[in-house]
Amino acid sequence: MRSSIKKLKHGGAGATPAGAAVLGRPRNPRIDGDIVRAVLGVLRSSGYRAVTFENIARRAKCARTTLYRRWPGKRHLVAFAIVHELGLEPAPDLGSLRADLEAALHTLFTAFAGPLRSAVAGLVADMAHDAALAGFIRDAVLAPRRESMRAAFRRGQARGEIMENLDIDVLLDMATAPYYFRALFGHERITDSMSPKIVDCVLRAAGIRRATERTAHRSHRRLRARS
Amino acid sequence: MRSSIKKLKHGGAGATPAGAAVLGRPRNPRIDGDIVRAVLGVLRSSGYRAVTFENIARRAKCARTTLYRRWPGKRHLVAFAIVHELGLEPAPDLGSLRADLEAALHTLFTAFAGPLRSAVAGLVADMAHDAALAGFIRDAVLAPRRESMRAAFRRGQARGEIMENLDIDVLLDMATAPYYFRALFGHERITDSMSPKIVDCVLRAAGIRRATERTAHRSHRRLRARS
DNA sequence: CATATACGATACAGTGTGTATGCTAAAGTT
DNA sequence: AACTTTAGCATACACACTGTATCGTATATG
Question: What per-residue string of b and e applies to B38-68 under the rule 16 or more CB within 10 Å gives b?
Answer without folding.
Answer: bbbbbbeeebbbebebebbbebbebeeeebe
